[in-house]
Amino acid sequence: VAGLGNYGMRGTRHSVGMEVLDRMARQLAVAEGWRVDRRCCADVALATAQGLELVLLKPRRFMNLNGLSVASAAEIYSLGPEDIYLVHDDLDKALGKVAIKLGGSARGHNGVQSCISALHSNEMTRLRVGIGRP
């Protein structure tokens, strides 16, 4: 599960994917388990939920380069694009509304496009979190 955003810019609308992962880590009792993984240039926490092993990933890059971290982590953890969930902001959704998107285009989102390019696939499931338009 990759929370897309601009690393170091906590609390901004475009980093909502990382905020969602922080919340997930707290709910899964692994919030103290975040560590820097230089191999994929990301903060990583490992968790288990309902018998599934999860890799929570917050890229340490700007949004338009998030895909490099996601692709590196996919290789390290032997994951295919179909195993990856991207959590990201969506300007076209009202604030707080969420939607699941199964594959398809990036719809203009630079972080998602970066992941599609780096993984050579658009099969990732996306959790789109509405931030609304200013």
What does this protein structure show overall?
- The chain is α/β, with parallel strands linked by helices.
- The relative contact order is 0.21.
- It is globular, with a radius of gyration of 13 Å.
- A four-stranded mixed beta sheet has the order 1-5-7-6.
- It contains three helices and seven strands; from the N terminus they run βαβββαββαβ.
- The longest helix is centred in the N-terminal third of the chain and has 12 residues, at 16-27.
- The chain has helices at residues 16-27, 66-76, 110-119, and strands spanning 2-3, 35-37, 42-49, 52-59, 85-90, 98-102, 125-130.
- The chain has one domain (2-130): Peptidyl-tRNA hydrolase (Rossmann fold), CATH 3.40.50.1470.
- The model has no long low-confidence stretch (mean pLDDT 94).
- This is PTH hydrolase.
- One of its GO terms (molecular function) is tRNA binding.
Number of helices: 3
Which regions have little confidence, pLDDT < 50, spanning 5+ residues?
A: none
Number of strands: 7
Mean pLDDT: 94
Strand order of the largest sheet: 1-5-7-6
* Percentage of β-strand residues: 25-35%
Shape: globular
Q: What structural class do you assign from the helix and strand content?
A: alpha/beta
- Quaternary structure state of the chains depicted: single chain
What order do the helices and strands follow?
Answer: EHEEEHEEHE
How would you sum up the major sheet? Answer: 4 strands, mixed
* Total number of distinct structural domains: 1
Note the gap between the termini: 27 Å
CATH top level is: Alpha Beta
